[in-house]
Write a structure and sequence with these properties.
Elements (H helix, E strand, L loop, with lengths): L1 E4 L4 H12 L4 E5 L15 E3 L5 H10 L4 E4 L6 H6 L1 H21 L4 E7 L22 H19 L3 E7 L1 E3 L17 H10 L5 E4 L11 E2 L1 E3 H16 L5 E5 L5 E2 H12 L5 E4 L8 E2 L4 H7 L8 H14 L3
Parallel strand pairs: 1-2, 1-4, 2-3, 4-5, 5-6, 6-11, 7-10, 8-13, 9-14
Antiparallel strand pairs: 9-12
């Protein structure tokens, strides 16, 4: 069985659904601060609690025959991490350490970590590969970077193996509309834009139109949520096969500007999007584009959603129908 921390959240719930379809038996631990119990498939055990609760962790590892942990649970609002760093270091780093300690107590050796391209900080070159220097520029990125360092130390000192997956921009939804993206507050560009299309919002803000990019707006690499789920499954299979620990970027290796994303949202939805142009946000790099060659070669990762319109189509179907 797999313990999935944060399995009621956006990325975690899509992984749980994918894992079920691969024949896995996931158990979800989520405090439901940002997750949704409705996102956990029927029949999957959902334990509502804090991953920093060592007694609860001992109870879970005793009750269930866990052989691996897939760790999604984290706070992920960059701006909030700047104004409330204690919250991010306490949850994303310190509580994650409690999970790792519980794994050692119960002799569970395989760990898949949901990391982030935010551990790199401002890009020194594009596309960014796994050898790019890590210099996170906010507490969110630092909190994930610290966990990566802990994982390296654990793998060196103990009978412990891990794979850290550094995401770029997760997007899209389950094509069958069973689950999708639902944050409160929502900060991601694609759902914000599509909520303008549905009438839930009046307009979308474009932060920065004077970047050194083809149309002046920031460029990002978007990856479909099911392609992320596939990578986690492949990473776990790799660890179970006896292969060693590793770190991998996950992205489509193609950059799209804010204007390109909004134009594509309009084409997919058939709706117009009211836009307001504002100044740059502090700390927003002009471009973030991944090199994912290593994941493709070593994990056998084959992203299925290579086209931005295909990614947005799944998000739009969810946004039109979503029940929560």
């Amino acid at each position: 069985m797999i313990l999935v921390t944060g399995g009621a959240g956006y990325i975690g719930s899509h992984y749980v659904q994918y894992a079920l379809e691969q024949g896995e038996k996931p158990v979800v631990l989520d405090n439901l601060v940002y997750g949704h119990k409705e996102a956990v498939p029927e029949g999957v055990p959902l334990i509502v609690g804090d991953m920093g609760d060592s007694k609860l962790l001992d109870q879970i590892f005793t009750e269930y025959d866990i052989d691996a942990v897939v760790h999604f649970a984290a706070y992920a609002y960059v701006g909030e991490s700047v104004t409330d760093p204690e919250k991010y270091y306490g949850n994303n780093t310190m509580a994650a350490l409690q999970v790792l300690s519980a794994m050692r107590r119960h002799k569970v050796h395989n760990f898949i970590f949901s990391s982030t391209c935010a551990t790199y900080g401002n890009p020194l070159y594009i596309p960014m590969d796994e050898q790019h220097p890590q210099n996170p520029i906010n507490p969110y990125g630092q909190s994930k970077y610290f966990v990566e360092q802990i994982l390296k130390a654990f793998a060196s000192a103990y009978d412990f193996n891990y794979i850290a997956l550094r995401y770029f921009n997760a997007a899209g939804a389950d094509p069958q509309c069973r689950i999708g993206e639902s944050h409160e507050p929502e900060t991601h560009l694609i759902p914000l834009a599509l909520q303008v299309c549905t009438g839930r919002r009046e307009k979308i803000s474009i932060f920065g139109t004077d970047y050194d990019t083809p149309d002046g707006t920031a460029v990002r690499d978007y990856i479909h949520i099911l392609d992320l789920a596939q990578a986690h499954d492949l990473g776990l299979k790799r660890l179970r096969s006896g292969a060693g620990s590793g770190i991998y970027n996950l992205g489509c290796e193609v950059g799209y500007s804010v204007r390109e994303v909004l134009d594509t949202c309009e084409k997919v939805s058939g709706k117009s999007i009211v836009r307001e142009e504002l100044g740059r946000r502090a700390g927003d790099p002009p471009r973030l584009v991944a090199s994912a060659t290593k994941a493709k070669e070593e994990l056998g990762w084959k992203p299925k959603f290579q086209n931005l319109a295909e990614i947005i189509e799944t998000a739009w179907k969810w946004e039109e129908r979503r029940p929560w």
